[in-house]
Amino acid sequence: MASYLLCIIAGAALFNALPHLLSGMNGRTFPTPFANPPGKGQSSAKANVLWGFANLIAAYAAGRAGGFSISDIASLSSSAVGALLLSLYLSHHFSSLGSGT
Fold first, then answer.
1. Rounded CA separation 38/26 (Å)
2. Closest CA to 20 of 49, 42, 62, 61
3. Coil, helix or strand at residue 43
4. Given this model, what pLDDT does residue 98 score?
5. Which string of b and e fits 28-66 if b means at least 16 CB within 10 Å?
6. How many whole angstroms from its chain centre is CA 96?
7. CB-count burial class (<10 Å; 0-12, 13-18, 19+) for 11
8. What's the confidence (pLDDT) of residue 101?
9. How many Cβ atoms sit within 10 Å of the Cβ of residue 8?
10. CA distance 35 to 19
11. Which positions ≥6 away from 6 have C-beta within 8 Å?
């Protein structure tokens, strides 16, 4: 059970890395937990690259600890659930900000 929870976290962290890395590499600001207010204000492009990279490291660590394997349907499905749930939450969060980011 704990291994599937870690795979869910890995999927969520991996998908959370994407908007931060893409925004940062394109030189655009985007909300991070370090913004003022957290998660709503804008952080610099460099802060987003660093936060995105930190999420990649967290995704890797959680996946390793959870025994993630692309050939294991249970761990792959768990990671997909984490990615989907975080994506749905973030789509709601950012659309409620009205910023369209």
1. 21
2. 49
3. strand
4. 67
5. ebbbbeebeeeeeebbbbebbbbbbeebbebbeebbeeb
6. 18
7. buried
8. 47
9. 23
10. 15
11. 62, 63, 65, 66, 67, 68
User: How many angstroms separate the CA atoms of 90 and 92, rounded?
Assistant: 5
Hey, what amino acid is at 41?
G
- What ranges make up the beta strands (E) of 10-97? none
What's the confidence (pLDDT) of residue 99? 53
Is omega for the bond preceding 37 within 30 degrees of 0, making it cis? yes
| Max CA distance (Å), the chain | 42
> Tokens in use for 98?
């009205």
Name the token pair of 99: 């910023």
What are the tokens at 8? Answer: 């869910």
Low-confidence ranges of the chain (pLDDT < 70): 98-101
Cβ contact 14:79 at 8 Å = yes
Q: Which residue has the tokens 């994407």?
A: 18
Determine how many CB atoms are found less than 10 A away from the CB of residue 99. Answer: 11
